[in-house]
Amino acid sequence: MELISFLHYRKKSAVSKAKKGNKEAFLALIDENRLNLYRVARGILKDKEDIEDALQNTIASSFQKLNSLKKDEYFRTWIIRILINECNEILRRNKKTISLIESEDQTTYSDSYEDMDLTTAINELSEELRITTVLFYFEDMSIKSIARILEIPEGTVRSRLTRARIKLREVMSEV
Fold first, then answer.
1. Residues 139, 149: contact at Cβ < 8 Å?
2. What global pTM score does this model have?
3. With the C-alpha atoms ordered 121, 138, 75, 158, is the resulting torsion angle positive or negative?
4. Domain architecture of the chain: domains with CATH
5. 3-state helix/strand/coil string of the chain
6. What is the pLDDT of residue 91?
7. Residue 173 — pLDDT band, cuts 50, 70, 90?
8. Cα separation of 30 and 26, whole Å?
9. pLDDT value at residue 30
10. What is the pLDDT of residues 117-151, one digit of tens each?
């Protein structure tokens, strides 16, 4: 229990230092959460460049808005919320973009079973189910934390996880 208290104090201290303008403390926080942020972005976005843009925008935005973080212990939740908003903005922007080059070969056969795995199955989920699934299973976040990040009731998180499991079972059983 003492170790958990020490780690909690250390993280809170790093956030406090970062809020006071200590760039090294901020970079340490980003480094500590780097893998979590990447996995969340990858769970929402497909394109490598979009993922990199979302991460870069999140880091810049969070540095600028760091003083708006009310409770230091919620830094991880707070930065993931910023990342989700950035990813959603990129998705909205991409929907508005119309490809100028139409594919001439529209008769290309695509094998839907090629390279089928859990990640591919998760990527086939709707956005709301995919985000919830990634946060719960890949980020080990509690239902309460997910509800807070997505600003939805805990019951909605549970129902999305149930629907995602059913859909994943269906997709994986086809393989």
1. no
2. 0.69
3. positive
4. 1-96 (1.10.1740.10), 116-175 (1.10.10.10)
5. CHHHHHHHHHHHHHHHHHHCCCHHHHHHHHHHHHHHHHHHHHHHCCCHHHHHHHHHHHHHHHHHHHHHCCCHHHHHHHHHHHHHHHHHHHHHHHHHCCCCCCCCCCCCCCCCCCCCCHHHHHHCCCHHHHHHHHHHHHCCCCHHHHHHHHCCCHHHHHHHHHHHHHHHHHHHHHC
6. 87
7. confident
8. 6
9. 93
10. 777 788 888 889 999 998 998 888 999 999 999 99
Tell me the residue type at 166.
Answer: I
CA-CA distance, 152 to 108, in Å (whole number)? 41
Rounded to the nearest angstrom, the gap between the alpha carbon of residue 88 and the centroid of all alpha carbons in its chain is 10
The count of other CB atoms within 10 Å of the CB of residue 159 is 14
Whether 84 contacts 90, CB under 8 Å: no
Cα–Cα nearest to 29, from 44, 45, 42, 18: 18
CB pairs under 8 A, 24+ apart, for 51-55?
Answer: 53/86, 53/90, 54/83, 54/86, 54/87, 54/90, 55/83
For 18, residues 6+ apart whose C-beta sits below 8 A from its C-beta are: 25, 26, 29, 66
Q: How far is the C-alpha of 69 from the C-alpha of 160, rounded, in Å?
A: 28
